[in-house]
Structures are given as structure tokens and as C-alpha cells.
Specification:
heterodimer; A: mainly beta; seven-stranded mixed β-sheet; four-stranded antiparallel β-sheet; B: 106 residues; mainly beta; three-stranded antiparallel β-sheet; 46% strand
């Protein structure tokens, strides 16, 4: 059974860079061309797509975040990562990593449990 | 920017059919999927590629997508279906979530 686990600091200072890692277990991240993505949810609000990485090498970002976001993969560690630069309080959210249902659908069948990141000084 | 619109809330009586809509420009030309989220839990994929159900999702959940509207239908709604529901649309490069609908089973 595929499992995903987010990890990283729970508190980040304004203007700094938020860095999270998603560790994948139960299968190799490089086995097939799935979409591996990051989604966030501010407290009490809805879901927001941050971006997706297609293992073949393509990355897709939310246009509203594109200038501040980088998603990358570390195949030997079976992980993929998220960086959001110049954070503000508006970036406070539960951050989820996810994998798509199929190799041709950019949806999210498998989810991590989520990790709360608070932006505060 | 592309937007998907859902009603903030929908109410349904137990055993009845609930329909949750998701509207967006030419949504029928994109793929739509649906998630269920209960408090404190990660979302669960209910419908993908407009109409397909992942393994383990009960048959009372079904989806459609045409023109500008995708619809999630829950037949024989149960108390356990009370949750937030989100639609998602995507095409070759962009993913967008709807604002979410709170389903209340009265």
C-alpha cells in the first residue's frame, strides 16, 4: 500500500523559505509516470493546488504561486520536495502531498496526513 | 484565472439523493474529479475522470460532467456522508479546486 508522509518545520518566519519533504513508501517514486503534487488548506478554508511534478520531468505550478514555488524530486531517497519563498501569514496552512490516481490524470488518490505550517515571527 | 464555483452548502434527508454542482467555463472540456473531506482528515478521492470511482468507493457516489457543469450525485445518502466536498478540474497544465460544499444530512 502506497503511503506518503510530509515532514518539515511547523513554524516559519515571514519572508523566509518554507521547505517540506514528502517521503514515499510502498512503491518507487520512479516506477511509473504519476503526478506527484502538493496541495494546501488554510485553517477553516478550502483546498488550494500548489503544483505537480510529472516524473518524466515536467512541473506545473499554480499561476498565483509560480514565482515563489519550486517542486523537485530526489529519486534515491524516494522523496519529493516543496519550497515556497518569501512567505507571509497567508501561507499558513496544512500542506498535503499526494499522488495521482493514474498516469494520465492530475488528481490525487493517495494523500499524506498533512502537516500544519504556521508563518509567524 | 480559471475558477470553479460550488454552492457553499447543500442539505439532504437520509435516504434521499444529494446533488452537488461545480460550474466553470467549458468545464466539460476538462477532466473533473471529486473529493470528500471529513473534519481533521485528509481528502478522499471519490470520482476521477468525470465518472469513474476508485476501488473501495461505494456505488452510491456517481459523477457527470457536461458543458459548464460537473455534478456529484449521492444516492441513498447516509449520515456518514456528512462532510465537505470539493470538485477539481484540470487540463494539460493547470489544476483548480472549487470552493467546497458542506453537505448536511438532516
Amino acid at each position: 500500500q502506497l503511503q506518503l508522509q510530509e515532514s518539515g518545520p511547523g513554524l516559519v518566519k515571514p519572508s523566509e523559505t518554507l521547505s517540506l519533504t514528502c517521503t514515499v513508501s510502498g512503491d518507487s517514486i520512479s516506477t511509473y509516470n504519476y503526478y506527484w503534487g502538493w496541495i494546501r488548506q488554510p485553517p477553516g478554508k478550502g483546498l488550494e493546488w500548489i503544483g505537480s511534478l510529472y516524473y518524466s520531468g515536467s512541473t506545473y505550478y499554480n499561476p498565483s504561486l509560480k514565482s515563489r514555488v519550486t517542486i523537485s524530486v530526489d529519486t534515491p531517497k524516494n522523496q519529493f520536495s516543496l519550497k515556497v519563498s518569501s512567505v507571509t501569514a497567508a501561507d499558513t496552512a496544512v500542506y498535503y502531498c499526494a499522488r495521482s490516481m493514474t498516469t494520465v490524470t492530475n488528481d490525487a488518490e493517495y494523500w499524506g496526513q498533512g502537516t500544519l505550517v504556521t508563518v509567524s515571527s | 484565472s480559471y475558477e470553479l464555483t460550488q454552492p457553499p452548502s447543500v442539505s439532504v434527508s437520509p435516504g434521499q439523493t444529494a446533488s452537488i454542482t461545480c460550474s466553470g467555463d467549458r468545464l466539460g472540456h476538462k477532466y473533473a474529479c471529486w473529493y470528500q473531506q471529513k473534519p481533521g482528515q485528509s481528502p478522499v478521492l471519490l470520482i476521477y475522470q468525470d465518472t469513474k470511482r476508485p476501488s473501495g468507493i461505494p456505488g452510491r457516489f456517481s459523477g457527470s460532467n457536461s458543458e459548464n457543469t460537473a455534478t456529484l450525485t449521492i444516492s441513498g445518502t447516509q449520515a456518514m456522508d456528512e462532510a465537505d466536498y470539493y470538485c477539481q478540474g484540470w487540463d494539460s497544465s493547470t489544476v483548480v479546486f472549487g470552493g467546497g460544499t458542506k453537505l448536511t444530512v438532516l
